[in-house]
Amino acid sequence: MAEARDLHIDSVLTNMSVQYRNEDMIWREVMPEVKVNKRSDLYWKYAKENGFRIYDDKIGPKSEANEIDFAVSTDNYSVKDHALADYVAQEEIDNSDSPLAPESDANDFINQCLDVSQEQRVSGIVFAAGTYPVGNKVTLSGTSQWSDSADNPIKNVQDAVEGCFMRANTLIFGIDAWLVFRRLPEILDAVKAIAGTNLNGGLATPSAVANLFEVDRILIGRSRYITTKEGQTATFARLWGKHMAALHIKAGNPGIRSVTFGKTFVETARVTTRMFDQKKGLKGSHYIKVGFNSDEKIIASDLGYFIENAVA
């Protein structure tokens, strides 16, 4: 009797394939998109001082009320175009086996690459000391870094949350900072003291930490990128560094008379363009381009607080 391996000819599975994905993008939550009608324009900014000054509001029986005034100014946005493209030969389409789908695979691949670049732009803004006012940032070093002998993580985060001009509602951790923070003895003791809190295998969960510091949510930057040039052996690194930021973020369209840390202005949302090029290849090729435009802009830098080098 023949061996079992001699009775079967290997073929490609149609119900399984392997594809690494950068699924941990948080840029849309950190700097939410707002749709605009023009590539560049102005928007109104009410003066920060409006509504905070204490006026003499006493009035006599026949006197006039003291007259006050408020101030407004303008700021601007200006979107920049971004696009990537790929050619998919008709030969590839005709000869591909399930589950391969060359055109949709190309479109998906392009979108993933655009997301990596977008994540890098946002992380480069949020995790940059120059983004924040002088009093809204701190750099930890040596024994003051988390998990060292003189660290004070609870005070650090409290200072960050309350240090924003409008109290922070979101904490953003780079994954390296989060992995250390969630197992710190001070944090574990603090979350265990909250009634009804369950630890996940002895580690603080995002929801427990959000509850501890009375913020709406915890965002963790886990996404990666390749640091080496194309053609070299790929070396991967995290897009979000060993830092933490506390931000006041208004989700969705901010509307009028509202304020938020930052927004992504978008005049043209992502759109896929598909054209057929008869000149490429025997049967021609399909040109697939995905593009959009954006301006990642800080609206109110004092609505954020940055802890640089939270961990070593």
Helix content: 10-25%
Listing every helix as H and every strand as E from the N terminus to the C terminus, the arrangement reads HEEEEHHEHEHHHEEEEEEEE
Largest sheet: 5 strands, mixed
| CATH T-level fold name | phage-related protein like fold
CATH superfamily: phage-related protein like domain
Structural write-up:
The protein is of the alpha+beta class. The chain has one domain (12-308): Alpha-Beta Complex (phage-related protein like fold). It is built from 7 helices and 14 strands. The strands form 4 sheets. Strands 1, 4, 11, 12 and 13 form a 5-stranded mixed beta sheet that branches. The radius of gyration is 26 Å and the shape is flat. Residues 7-19 have low confidence and may be disordered.
Question: Can you give me a brief rundown of this structure?
Answer:
With 312 residues, this protein is an alpha+beta fold.
Features:
312 residues, alpha+beta, phage-related protein like fold, 5-stranded mixed sheet, 7 helices, 26% strand, flat
List the helices and strands and how they pair.
Blueprint: H1 27-30, E1 33-35, E2 40-46, E3 72-78, E4 80-89, H2 90-95, H3 102-126, E5 137-139, H4 153-163, E6 170-174, H5 175-181, H6 185-192, H7 206-213, E7 217-221, E8 224-226, E9 236-238, E10 244-247, E11 262-266, E12 271-277, E13 285-298, E14 304-308
Parallel strand pairs: 1-11, 5-14, 6-7
Antiparallel strand pairs: 2-3, 4-13, 6-10, 8-9, 10-14, 11-13, 12-13
